[in-house]
Hints:
The protein has 18 helices and nine strands. It has helices at 15-24, 40-50, 58-62, 64-67, 70-73, 114-133, 148-154, 201-205, 223-229, 239-242, 251-254, 281-284, 289-295, 306-320, 326-329, 338-351, 354-364, 371-380; strands at 3-7, 29-34, 79-86, 104-105, 135-140, 159-160, 166-167, 175-182, 245-247. The chain has a five-stranded antiparallel beta sheet with strand order 1-5-8-3-2, sandwiched between helices. The chain starts with a strand and ends in an 8-residue tail after the last helix.
Amino acid sequence: MPISISSSFPVSVDKAALRTAARAEGFDAIGFVSADIGDIPGKHLKEFISAGRHGDMDWIVEKAARRHHPQALWPEAKSVIMLGLNYGPEIDPLAYTEESEHGVISVYAQGRDYHDVVKKKLKRIARGIVRDYGGDVKVFVDTAPVMEKPLAAKAGLGWQGKHTNLLSRDFGSWLFLGCIFTTHEITPDLATEGSCGSCTECLDICPTNAFPEPYQLDARRCISYLTIETKAHIDRHMRPLIGNRIYGCDDCLAVCPWNKYAKTARELKLRARSELIAPSLAELATLDDAAFRALFSGSPVKRLGRNRFLRNVLIAIGNSGHLAFLEVVTPLLSDRSAIIRVAAVWALGQLATPEIYGQHFDILVGQETDDAVRTEWFLSKGNENEQA
């Protein structure tokens, strides 16, 4: 939820002092932009929704009217202060994508939940603005209907690359964004002149071909959407393409040549926890709810919940080709969660011989009461391995 702070008797804001305050809080980038950013970002949002590329993220549709323009969210806003916090990784995010016994968790989720880290810093700066200059402010970190990336680009923090993410000359792909809306009129900064040129590395590496065109994303095919956003069963034709990515995907970010300027995160809370770098799939598959919550305490992964997380783990296991994983797959064929059972049946079909699959089929399919799981039992019979 946004944090609102207000005071009377506003005075002119000292941009240099705010930059100093932002650096003191650990922010790596700060820029200023008018709240009136025009209608182009809103037009792109409307096109994205009209094409159905938001998938089952219904909240995007429900909040589109407020998201399309800062002043639609808060009419009194005159300026937006955009701040970036570097979360550059210490190791190559692609280093473990071929290690099929291990899962890959997106860099942003390997440390502490950035919402908590960024929000606390923003609130302290916002309180300082009200204390020193008066006026009203509202603080937003990702979860509110704000289009941070177009705002950040106009504020000079970087530009949106062909993969639609923000790129920075100083930090490559690795900036968390937060913003402070204010009723103060603050002189805007100049937008950054940046270009991807003829490079298409981010588009070419995408395992699921989620970019219909440069600068356009179809979320329905994005691994981050499939493993984090959707609450549904992941479509069968997409499962083999996910590989061992169990929470998000950094491929398009990590391959960008602008990362040659990237730096390791200064904020220690955002650095990766060792146990979340390439964790064992076999160990993850045995997590009950309590163990899941304990392992991912303080991590964004915790919000996903054990059921959808194990769905992702089982898909990675099914893609591994390791027969030894059957030992952890078979107990999950009878898990209480239907979303886990579907993924377990699929993984069984990818790994087991027809004889072993048939043995479990004969015992369990007649007991199954969920239509989606029953359907999966019949579709996976014969050890199918479909490709998109």
